Every structure is written in C-alpha cells, then in structure tokens.
Amino acid sequence: MENFKFWNPTKIIFGKGAIRELGPAIKKHGHKKVLLLAGQGSSKKNGAYDGAVKSLQAAGIKWVELWGVQPNPVLTKVYEAIKLAHAEKVDAVLAVGGGSVIDSAKSVAAGFYLSDIWEVFEGRVEIKRALPLFTVLTLSATASEMNQWAVLTKADEKKKWAIGADALFPLVSIVDPSVQMRLPWEQTVNGAIDALSHVMENYFVGTDQEVSMAVCESLMRTIITMTDRLQAHPRDYNARASLVWAATMAHNGVSAVALKGGDWSAHKIEHGISAIHPEVAHGTGLGIVFPAWILYLRKYNPKTFSRWAKQVWGARNAESAVKKMRTIYSKWGAPVSLSELGIGSKELKTIANNAFRMGSMGVVKKLTRKDIEKILKLAL
Ligand code: NZQ
Ligand code: ZN
Questions:
Q1: Is the pLDDT of residue 1 over 90?
Q2: Does residue 21 form part of some domain?
Q3: What's 35's domain CATH number?
Q4: Number of other CB atoms surrounding residue 298 within 10 Å
C-alpha cells in the first residue's frame, strides 16, 4: 500500500432537525456576523433557509444575505459577494444550498483575503487563509460540504476550473436529509451520478489498496441501490439518508486514501462540456462521459476494471457492466449520449481543447487531446 496523508477537519452534524444546531455551532466558534450565501430560491421552499435563520436568531448571530448563485456558479457572483462581505464586515461565511453555493462560498471565504481569487484558479497564487465557513447542505452530490475543493466558471473565457486548499474545508456542515425529501427527481439522479463518478475517479487507479477499494465498492453499490429505491419510493427517509451520507463519503477523502489522488480526467472532460454549455448539469455530463471513458480506458488497468464489473454490477466484464450502467442511468431518466443533449460530432474538438487547457490529464493513462476526442466520440 502507498504511503498517504489523511486529514479532514470538517465537523458534520447529520440528521432530522440538525439545522437547529447551526447557530450554537457558529456562536461556539466566536463568530458574530455571517454572510449568508444562497442560490435561486429552492432553500426557501425546502425549509433550509427558515431553519437556518431561526437558529441564527436564537443564537444572537447577525447575518447579511446574498441570493442568486446559479448552478455551474460564476466568478462574477463571487466578486459581488466578496464586496458585500467587506462592506458588512462579516467574520464568517454561511452557505445554504448545494455544491454551487458551497463552492462559491469557499471562493468568497478565501477571496476575502486576496486581491483576485481567480489568480488561485490560474495557479498563480496560493490560498493561505480563508474566513471560517459553515454550510447547510440542500443537495447531496459534490461532497463540497466536507472537502477542500471548489469549482467556478469564468464565463467570458469559458473556463470551468477547480481549486483546493486546506483552508477551504468547512468548519461545520449541517446535513439534514429531510430537506432533500422533495428534491426534484432529476437533481437526485444528477447527485447520485456525480457521487458515483467521484468514487470511480479514485477506484480505477487502484490495484490492491484493499481497504479503499472495498470501501469504494460498497459506496458504489449503496449509491445505485438507494437511488433505485428512491425511484420506487420517493419518501423513503432511510434510502434518502443513506444516499446523502454515501455522497459525502464519496468525495471527503475517506474512500480515496492511498489511491494516488485519483484520475479525474472524466471530470475534466465534463467540465469542458459544462464550461461551454452551462445549461448542462455536472451530473448529467458525467453520466454521458464516464461510461465512454471506461470503454476507452479499460485495457489500461484491466484487473481493476474486471473487479469493478463483477463487484459492483455483477457483470462478467467491463463492457457488459457499462451496458448495465447505461441501462440504469436511462431508467433513472438521465441522458447517456451527447446527442441527447444536442451536442454533435462537430463540437468534439472544441470540447477537447477546452478540457485540455486545464493541464495534465489522467493517471490510468495520460491523455492526449486526441484521446479526449476519441472518448467523446464514444459518448456520441
Ligand atoms: O439555486 P437553487 O434555487 O438553490 O436550486 C438548486 C439548483 O437549481 C437546486 N436545489 C438544491 N437543493 C435543492 C434544490 N432544489 C430543490 N430542493 C433542494 N433541496 O438544484 C440545482 C442544482 O444545484 P447545484 O448546487 O448546482 O448542484 P450540485 O450540488 O450538483 O453542484 C454542482 C456544482 O458543483 C461542482 C460542479 O461542477 C457544479 O459546478 N463540483 C464541485 C465539487 C467539489 N466542490 O468538490 C466536485 C464536483 O465534482 C463538481 O465538479
Ligand atoms: Zn463531480
């Protein structure tokens, strides 16, 4: 087994009614005024916002609100939030929403101390500190509630890029599955496919890292089974809660231990798609790219791909497993080809070029621009 470092300082408060503990948690850390960042309104309907402000009020924490973070969040909104954070002299940031809101909040927290947060995305500046970050999660997908990563789009340059830093781990995240009980089915599926993809990004570089590989297999099976169960019984709390926690575990570092940092080229290719087509949700893009990626890469780590086929899909080889995977994604209502999104062969070069700008691609195999085009062709 490879040497590794593992560190995850985020405290998770999980379960029905957990939002009540938000205010006391912020107070305990000595903060007095937070910037509450939110999306386009769903958190007013699912109870997360009401629960959060009630808890802030009860604990005597002041707040200022900024709404309007969009899915595939953009840099300009983050600049607006940083300006407000300075003007209002907040001492912490509170994200109420899904991955897009949390990623924006992370960028605000770090950008508060920098002249331009985008310099970090370009790799020219390092994050040394950030405002303390608290989150109330409303959509399980990214695990941003318990990791150090953030993804933003600089729309004018069509760059959807990522940053990571120790200072970006949230201090406390409230994860109450009951606010996701009425999540639109499409969002549930996007979240499940994203979580599944996070596990696969790590798993496929594996060879014999037995603990992590077994954890990954169990997470993948759980995500698939719980999503299926929710399709049949949308109000099944235990299925929802299991999916929620599996999604957090899928990208909080636990299942990635000793797996060389994972591969992440399927993610980069997806980011190349949603950078150009911001209307395409991250999970939707991954549901299309990942099966094609597996078909293209399976010969480079054949033992692990066969193990995955057997352990996760009960299939005799990777090709049959991909068939099963696409069948289940379609049953969940997710597109499995670029053509279903209206993206044709003419665009493949542009997407490949966009993804390739992110720098070195792939660990299972170092990918060239041509490789990316071939993967995209398999996704048509
Ligand atoms: O904006 P609102 O009104 O809140 O609506 C959101 C949004 O339209 C809605 N939603 C959220 N919670 C809901 C709800 N609707 C009803 N009920 C609820 N309880 O769902 C829509 C999508 O939200 P979004 O936050 O965009 O989704 P997600 O959590 O999937 O985040 C996706 C973003 O995270 C990035 C993706 O690339 C994408 O930009 N990623 C972040 C990662 C990380 N930080 O570690 C890793 C991932 O691989 C990913 O790249
Ligand atoms: Zn993802």
A1: no
A2: yes
A3: 3.40.50.1970
A4: 21
Q: Is 172 helix (H, G, I), strand (E, B) or coil?
A: strand
Q: Of all protein residues, whose CA lies closest to atom 5 belonging to ligand 1?
A: 42
**Cβ atoms of 139 and 175 closer than 8 Å:** no
What is the CB-side half-sphere exposure of residue 156 using CA atoms within 13 A?
3
Atom of ligand 1 nearest to the CA of 69: 1
pTM above 0.90, yes or no: yes
Question: Are 254 and 174 contained in the same domain?
Answer: no
- Ligand 1 pocket: which of 142, 147, 201, 276 to mutate (most atoms <8 Å of CB)? 142
Q: How far apart are CA 316 and CA 122, in angstroms?
A: 43
What share of the chain in percent tops pLDDT 70?
100
Same-domain status, 190 and 145: no
Question: Does one domain contain both 103 and 236?
Answer: no
Q: Which pLDDT value is given to residue 267?
A: 97
CA angle 123, 270, 276 (to 5 degrees): 80
